Amino acid sequence: MKQILTALRLGALLLVLAPLPSAAQRAVAVLPGYATPFSLDSVAHARELAVPRPVAYRALLDVLRQLQIPVDADSVHRSVAHAPFIKRGSIAKTAMSQLFDCGMGPMLPNANTYRLKIAYAAWVDSLAPDRSRLRFGVGAGGEDVEGPSKEPVACASTGRFEKLLLDRVEAWLR
């Protein structure tokens, strides 16, 4: 009997220590302007949602498509990521300089005039049968559109892109 209790305790401990599949996933991207791969999971913003994981995942996919952002979905782990895609101008009618800080050019922010390579990753974790957490991380690097004469620049997120996406997911769920 003592051996059975010990085995049950060990099994329970392993369950507590075992990460959820989506929490165990890491996402890195190679972006212009960065000397090393950029860790998307380390900069992810999170929001708890009062819906089951599959519903939150569906909302995430729909919002990304509405924003015309490329989607590579992993329905098994309820995660979405995309290798760097190229974007110029704006996302959801929001100027790139409001979403990313790529430094200043002679007259305008680089984010508004450079070609941005943007990578993102998103995970939907189950917190309870009727609750989930959506995590979204994004990174970007900028390249001058006039050619390779200038070094690419690393672009920091202002946090507005993450907020925009998370707010739209919540609005979709209402």
Task: Tell me briefly what this model is.
This protein has 174 residues and is of the alpha+beta class. 32% of the residues lie in helices and 34% in strands.
Structure notes:
This protein is α+β, with helices and mostly antiparallel strands. The protein has a single domain, classed as 2-Layer Sandwich (TATA-Binding Protein). 32% of the residues lie in helices and 34% in strands. The chain is built from six helices and eleven strands. The strands form three sheets. Strands 3, 4, 5, 8, 9, 10 and 11 form a seven-stranded antiparallel sheet that branches. A hairpin with a 4-residue loop joins strand 4 and strand 5. Helix 3 packs across helix 6. The longest helix is centred in the first third of the chain and has 16 residues. The radius of gyration is 19 Å and the shape is elongated.
